[in-house]
């Protein structure tokens, strides 16, 4: 297994108390596999990824327990310098907002080339040639002419391609993409997603795709982990989860997508609000919003139950959820 | 305007408000907005113009919801701002209930302001953080000097209840609410004066998936119960399809296609509409994977839009005629009345296609040779 996150707990110490952002997350990614982590804001999907990358702000953040195994090595036990080596070369991250993740006063060629001068000790001239090659690879037209241009001279989709080029530069074995297409227009979204998926296949990388968009997930992911209030509530191969969700939260999300045959009618909506991480409800965190909640849900935290060989659901009533559709 | 003074529960106001249903509530004709670009030294002069909106024509009927979709930069938000007269148009006219308001002054607009309201995209930026929710919602009444019997506070509580918030939260500040709740406050403010038309600019796109559905339902309830007409601006095609009876697709400042919801989504004719629809990722796995149209690059700059048809630089059906002659927005043969398309070579009216259309010159260039003169 390329990456294995085991029972990860992350908390943030704030003035108002301890916010439990991640509460026992387990997931794994193999080479060439795409794991989609789906969740709303505050579900802990980005914090988990930041912990894996080692870019979590500590303090206020704190990894209180757990293991992050990357190629069988626990990243949390590594020293700063060793960790940094892995972060640069073995894993890379693509962020949502490409404009603010690129340096506005350096040309894109310099920014891509920097990776090669720092990590590979290349000369600036060679690094620039490499940058052109990478820009070609992510299909930026006229790469040779544009290598000296600055981020503001590129459109949103082009900037995101440059981010992808930078992430791929050192041929990492794991890429974490945090909402890579959220800020883009639909026609451009499709281009960028296709590109990412294709390059991933080509280089046989592991990909963690963090998103809130159910549609994007359906197209590219192999398996999916749905997060709610810092826990994984359901994991499944993609196809099965769309056909028959085994957790009421997943089911609610899928039902709240407007469908052709019910236009103009009331949409199904999950009632209530996501919980405050300072005060996560006892028992199942979803119980105040869940249509199936019973007494046991208010007292006992549901374990991740094995639904089938490949599927898990953290619901006391996963059987009923599956049957009720 | 007269019914603003009443305290009748908003929910009980029937749609008898507009007896003259024959004329549309809002008529927009050849509306244009060009933002000048200043440059030059030492004397700054106008060196060009961003043609954000360039000749759009449509009507909004009373009680109807018109969806406005398009990518960023297509001018849909500018159109919204022109309709509310937050901006003054460069050319063309906006007629509200027979009265031309395109260049109306402050005084003339005053009575109309209370009838046209706006809901903004960002529920964090559109509420004053130093005002309580009560004073935010009451301010439209204050500005227009409306004193409902029972007092403004009672009316605010009533409004809070209509939008599904606790009336007891009257004295709280915006930061105490979540994004979805703030958007509800925005809705309460917009309906406070019982307007006839609401311009909703991306009202749900900043919200989480589970909250989006709640707010869409609220808007739908408000629309039905109060008979308010909506111009619903969004980039999410699925939500627009759900909310709007009629939909207009915009591209680079122009409307390229406008039609009834069913006609547009099931029988689109304009290539751009086809491309937009096929780019939407399908969340329903059972649907047989539609073939994709992949558009080349990005939308051209609105400073110097392409001649003729503006979509031609990204269109797979473009021919010489498209560069020289701008296609008019007309009813193409085979279309239902009211389904207007601006295209010389429209697509077949279906959403099924037999093969992928891939339009990426960079991709083609890569396969042939590392060239490609396209500047995006």
Question: Describe it for me?
Answer:
The complex is a heterodimer of chains A (325) and B (376). Chain A has 325 residues and is α/β, with parallel strands linked by helices. Chain A has 13 helices and twelve strands. Chain A has helices at 45-53, 80-89, 98-101, 108-119, 124-137, 143-146, 156-168, 186-203, 214-220, 238-243, 248-255, 295-299, 318-323; strands spanning 3-14, 17-29, 34-38, 61-70, 73-74, 91-94, 174-178, 206-211, 223-228, 231-237, 305-306, 312-313. In chain A, the strands form two sheets. Chain A has an eight-stranded mixed beta sheet with strand order 6-7-8-3-9-10-12-11, sandwiched between helices. The radius of gyration of chain A is 21 Å and the shape is globular. The model of chain A has no long low-confidence stretch (mean pLDDT 86). Chain B is α/β, with parallel strands linked by helices. Chain B folds into two domains: 2-244, P-loop containing nucleotide triphosphate hydrolases (Rossmann fold); 250-368, Rossmann fold, CATH 3.40.50. Chain B has eleven helices and 13 strands. Chain B has a seven-stranded mixed beta sheet with strand order 6-7-8-3-9-10-12, sandwiched between helices. Chain B has a four-stranded antiparallel beta sheet with strand order 2-1-4-5. Chain B has a two-stranded parallel sheet with strand order 11-13. Chain B is globular, with a radius of gyration of 22 Å. The termini of chain B are far apart. Chains A and B meet through helix 7, helix 8, helix 9, helix 10 and helix 11 of A and helix 6, helix 7, helix 9 and helix 11 of B.
